[in-house]
Amino acid sequence: MRIVLLSGGSGKRLWPLSNDARSKQFLKVLKNEQGKMESMVQRVWRQLRKADLADQAIVATSSSQVEMLHNQLGANIPVVVEPERKDTFPAIALAAVYLYSVERCSLDEVIGVLPVDPFVEDHFFETIKELERGLDESAADMALLGVTPTYPSEKYGYIVPGSRIPGDFIHVSKFREKPDEATAKKLIHQQALWNCGVFSFRLGYIIQLLKRKNIPTQYDALLTYYGQLQSNSFDYEVVEKASNIIAIPYSGYWKDLGTWSTLTDEMDTSVIGNGVISKDVINSCIVNELEIPILLNGVENIVVAASPDGLLVTEKKSSHKIKEYVSHFQEGPMYQEYWWGWSRVIEYSKKGEGEETLMEKIHLTAGRNLNDRGRGNQEVWTVIEGEGTLVLNDEFSIAGTGTSLTIPEGKNFSWEARSDMKLIVIRTGTHLMAHRRKNGRLDGTMNRPVYSNYS
């Protein structure tokens, strides 16, 4: 069985920590078994390893998330990158074609698809393995995993059962998208399941479907054709049109951590970052990525989240409405993770339509390096912590705490960290923020380099 993890979305419901570059699955707000902070994607990957599924998994994602995936999961994580961000059908089609034409998987191979960020118990992934058995023992086109509902939710779609199959599986009669509460109660009475976006199929089923639609089934050809694909969901394009679907119920814990209310319910601490909550505060939390302190006093059911992108104060029960208010914010992202570390905007200014100044704090992880290709901007770099090697004009020099240097316009240079390094860089030039918004990185100049041994 091969696993395809879907990693997409902008996660604006968790603004200001999530944005187009850092979706919700990358926020390190959960604790692992050792008490260290981890993100949703790190948690899921850890659980896949426990279930012996990680070695068979690939991640389908957009270009803006590749470096963050490598930073959090490791440089060797296999990814299939969309040429442009679309919905789940194009992303799954691209991953299937990659497995078929590049990795040469058999058409009989079972493919399991799931989101990259479910909050579940470990045996959820053991249940996913059962989907392969369901396909083996039936003539079904697809096998789904559905969650046994714990309340009549209006936020989830429902899988409505038909006849039962000997064993654990059921035939799927139909689907119902996000019903009102009264309808949801009726569906639960009919033993309907929450649709959690987990399904499986044989690779040949999707490849034949693509051929019928005249969609290329060779990876390079599909990359070229990708822009012509309609941005439809896999549910709409495939699942709802399949004639023979089975499902297996999962009765363990499952939660979609898509809002501040649901996310903070699963946090083991009420304060992350620099903050204090007074003893009279009830059911409230702070998530602070800034260096300034935050104090909560005399409030109830409040979430305060602060990052370089902005400051949020919301009542928990209203946190699902955030997305509609932040869609017009254009300055970010002010924080970004890369395979080599992270960067954070400290200050930005612009003089009319002319020169811009952008000050950033850079963290470069020990043993990693970055290249910066100058594009007409003058840059002043100052090492505030750690030690590394600078290569400028083919000359090597050691730079430690307190070192400050000016990089002339248009010069190429690179850093390699001998220890964890923190640097401040001040850039002056034009179109700095425009490049940042367009490319999802500081100014479009920092890219993953080829490793070299600087000594």
- Count of separate DSSP helical elements: 11
Query: What distance separates the N and C termini?
Result: 44 Å
- Alpha-beta classification: alpha+beta
Q: Please name the CATH topology of the largest domain.
A: Spore Coat Polysaccharide Biosynthesis Protein SpsA, Chain A
What is the number of domains?
Answer: 3
Form type:
globular
Pfam families: NTP_transferase
Protein name: Mannose-1-phosphate guanylyltransferase
GO molecular function, one term: mannose-1-phosphate guanylyltransferase (GTP) activity
Domain Nucleotidyl transferase: 4-267
Write the layout of secondary structure elements.
Layout: E1 2-6, E2 30-31, E3 37-38, H1 40-50, E4 57-62, H2 66-73, E5 79-82, H3 88-101, E6 110-115, E7 118-120, H4 123-137, E8 142-147, E9 158-164, E10 170-176, H5 181-189, E11 193-202, H6 203-212, H7 219-225, H8 234-237, E12 245-250, E13 254-256, H9 260-265, E14 271-272, E15 275-277, E16 285-288, E17 294-296, E18 302-307, E19 310-315, H10 323-326, E20 335-338, E21 341-350, E22 356-364, E23 369-373, E24 378-385, E25 388-392, E26 395-399, E27 404-407, E28 412-417, E29 421-429, H11 432-439, E30 446-447
Parallel strand pairs: 1-4, 1-6, 4-5, 8-12, 14-16, 15-17, 16-18
Antiparallel strand pairs: 2-3, 6-11, 7-13, 8-11, 9-10, 9-11, 10-12, 18-19, 20-21, 21-22, 22-29, 23-28, 23-30, 24-27, 24-29, 25-26, 25-28
